[in-house]
Amino acid sequence: MTELELAWTLSTPALLGIAAAAIAVLLLLIIKARVHAFIALVIVSVITALAAGIMPGDLIDVLYDGFGSTLASVALLVGLGAMLGRMLELSGGAEVLTDALIRLFGEKRAPFALGVTSLLFGFPIF
InterPro entries this protein is in (predicted)? Predict the structure, then answer.
């Protein structure tokens, strides 16, 4: 990545404030406004970049580099995780484990049982 010319320079607390506000706006867009997560992420990324002082002319390159490097590092992980999830769905393994944990913890603790199931199935991905 090349050196960027910033419109202004901000202090560390200001940048942390921008990051906190960006997370809050992202959650608001996804949870309250029901905006698709990817679209919300792009919107918040653009706003955050502009607030941090990145010049509008450099914005496309910054987004391209940022999303590209992130995608490159997690694409294989997401792909393999999706295949593992599909295999568990087709084999019925997820349903069997979920039913067993609901029997173990009881109907009243079904959300807890589902959480444990998710945790167990999430470990192989990471």
Answer: Glcn_transporter
Between CA 54 and CA 47 the distance in angstroms is 10
pLDDT digits (tens, 9 = 90+) for 37-47: 989 999 999 99
At 88, the amino acid letter reads L
pTM above 0.85, yes or no: no
Whether 49 is covered by a domain: the verdict is no
- Give one word for 4, left, alpha or beta, with left for phi > 0 and alpha for psi -120 to 50: beta
Q: Is residue 33 part of a domain?
A: no
Q: What angle do CA 12, 27, 84 make, to 5 degrees?
A: 110
Bridge partner residues of 54 (DSSP): 6
With tokens 């593992």, the residue in question is 84
